[in-house]
User: Fold these one by one.
Assistant:
Number 1:
Amino acid sequence: MSTIFDILSKKVIEWRKDESTILEKGGAKVLSEVTVSQAFGGMRGVRSIICDTSRVPQEQGLIIREIPLKNLFDKTPEEIFFLLLTSELPDAAQISDFSSEIKKRKNVPQYVWDVLKAMPKDSHPMTMLNTAVLVLQIESVFAHQYDGGMRKEDYWKATLEDALNIVAKLPAIAAGIYRLRFNKGEIIPSDLHMDLTGDYVHMLGLDENKKDEFNELMRLYLVAHCDHEGGNVSALTNLTINSALSDLYYSMSGGFNGLAGPLHGLANQECLKWILDIMKKYGSTPTKEELKEVVWETLNSGKVIPGYGHAVLRVTDPRFEGFLQFGKTHFPDDPIFLTVSRLFEVVPEELKKVEKIKNPWPNVDAASGSMLYYYGLKEFSYYTVVFAVSRSLGLTAQAVVNRAMLSPIIRPKSVTTKFVKEFIS
Ligand code: CMX
């Protein structure tokens, strides 16, 4: 039976051939031009990165290896990881083999727990996660083999080793952080027989009540956040660091630091906080009129409406739609969920009135936090960690693919403001 290494070995040959042909035929074609506004404006819309794991058309949202996310909502994180890496969904034998490959790599060394336990008690859970990943760098197969003089053609194999190890260990690390940081008692050891979702839920150790439903939510959560093309902050950071031949532990820790920002992955924490504050102010689920009032209060105080807007999307995020549907199915009358749904009826119409906002529609973070809250995961500073566990699938897969394609160091050119002044005159 093929292992993931055998499957990718064949794919890599095809992919490299494909790239040679593209460069031969069209290497000189212009893919994008950069205006002065784009250079000052965070390079928005500049097409200058190749990412094959997923794409995000602005009118559709996430498409993973040419399959729209909404057609993948019933998959497991393992299946999605296989898809991201290989471009194909696994058959029964392949997923069984791939899942075993992950299961045998779950063990987290004791020194990781020692470092986490030594951190300040009020450390942000994302700081703990990024530290744990960085501390694990000593395990990097890539770093060791690179020191031993590995051939460039084989870089991807060592990167895949690191990728599998990181993805396998992250649920245990993330769950351990939850228990340490929020005084939940002893760290619960990983069950080597469980899949990624089941084991993560098991190690979080939340109330047994509705465990199956929570398991189902976590599976959806880990699938929905897995990847979002190559230009977002965490992906670009990860790829840039990785392109210096820093190993995946260095680059993932860096990418996660970006994910920790309030305009990126931290928005789910901010969003739920905002919703709970609103509910506190109005006593329960506010009316549409009250929500309108809050939206303008927030905007007029110079703050963003968390969970709304997107740098790329111009429609409702399909990930938001997935969570909305989950809430409607499992807890339609929950007051927090009702507030989330009602905000969806109110916010876009109000944001449309603000000319500068390009996308008034909700992104994934507008709903995801409220789902976790419902099942008893109430510490919202932890939510970005769950996001990171999921995003590790895409970040690691992107790095493996880039190494397979022998991608060079990322090094765009910067110019000074003085240069631009002279250039435009
Ligand atoms: N509320 C208020 N103002 C908003 C807004 C929102 N939800 N979304 C955009 N704007 C503002 C921007 O801050 C910007 O204002 P300035 O020119 O004064 O700086 C202006 O509208 C134009 O922004 P844009 O081109 O529409 O959006 P950007 O690509 O610059 O930013 C994003 C995208 C996500 C950072 C922004 O929409 C935002 O801050 N949203 C709220 C935070 C959030 O939900 N982030 C999660 C994104 C998903 C993720 O990456 O995880």
Note: The longest strand covers residues 54-55.
Number 2:
Amino acid sequence: MNILSPSILAADCWQLGQQIEQVQRSGAKYLHIDVMDGIFVPSISFGMPVISSLRKRTDIFFDVHIMIREPERYAAQFVECGADLVTFHLEATERIQETIDAIRQAGAKVGISIKPGTPVEAVLPWLEQVDMVLVMTVEPGFGGQKYMDTCTEKIRQVRAAIAEKGLRVDVEIDGGVTAENITVPLEAGANVIVAGSAVFRGDIEENVKMLMAQISHKS
Ligand code: DX5
Ligand code: ZN
């Protein structure tokens, strides 16, 4: 199944609750929540208190993308405050197994992400242990960047490796998705598509419906 995961990094924080309701009303099942520490990436976003307070108000699936160094230190806390899935960066830790175990034991799904410069080979040894691989299609840190075409081949390679091993692992992509290019990652094998600016700039409900129509058309 193909899924749209609207990224609230592009939302208006003053109206965050209302905007999440709009996204949900338009049919989105996932919400992408970007956590940044100012160290692994050169920006700081939001953390546990924001996730906890949103969790009290909505049952939408929380797709939490943690762009933080040493994710093993905080992984379980993100689950406790409401994440359904926690995706961490392979480049951010030496303790990949520990991070996977911490998320799993806390009761959430596990995602592992690679930056545009990280080769696909790095993620292959972990495929059996994760629910999702996130192939970044921009350098993590900011919304509103341009989709990097060089990443499309990586999506293909990850999907092929998953198929070859006979696994059921989602492939998510994140960064630079627009109504014009959304079919590119889908055709390459991605099935979870993050969209920030393409959802929250302009008419949110229209944007979600239009992107979801394109996504389901490819299912
Ligand atoms: C970037 C974040 C993305 C970001 C995507 O580091 O991980 O989730 O919100 O934003 P757009 O869709 O605007 O490129
Ligand atoms: Zn993200």
Note: The pocket of D-xylitol-5-phosphate (ligand 1) is lined by residues 7, 9-10, 32, 34, 65, 138, 140-145, 174-177, 194-198 (CB under 6 Å).
